[in-house]
Amino acid sequence: MMSARVARSGLRAAQQFSAPRAAVNSLRTYATPAQDASVNPPRRSYTASSKSSALDQTAKAIAALGQTLKADPKLGAILGAPTLTHADKLQVVAELQKVAGADKGDILKNFLLTLAENNRLGSLETVCEKFATLMSAHRGEIELNITSAQELDSKTISRLEKAVAKSEYSQGKKLKIVTAVNPDLVGGLVVDIGGRTIDLSVSAKIAKMNKALTDAL
Hints:
By secondary structure, the protein is of the alpha+beta class.
């Protein structure tokens, strides 16, 4: 299992340092717009793959890495441990490459090495998300985020997609569906698209009811 191998590389570091805090600090750093391409791996990797006609392959590989990190939250903390040695980082990069798959022109390898050299492997999940945003823009897509109290079936998601596609919210663009589950909604769902939020959750209705009762008393 990939996470076990990475864990062996970073075990010593994870025991000596508060890795979660390191990961948070690294994410904050990435939230600041980069001024140089050398510290902006998402843009750098996107540009490199575009020039080599390997954009779709690179996007698929980076998406695979992002999914792996989401499936195992502990990985981000381990990757962000600052006491990883150079040898540890090379081993981690090698394991990440195996998870990602095909890598035309070593674009992904160079992408990961850039993160390692700048001690930002702990930010990999965020970097993957930024790359996905670049790809969506390239493909003329707009994200349709659907959050529900329980996991939705494919038929329901398809109906929502068709309804939104016909509305002004889609802006005439292809929809990229992103689903999430939040039990706190109690029931119903929340739809986010193009910076707009449509809250159809039971929790929102309860909150409005409580406010109305409070104002009336």
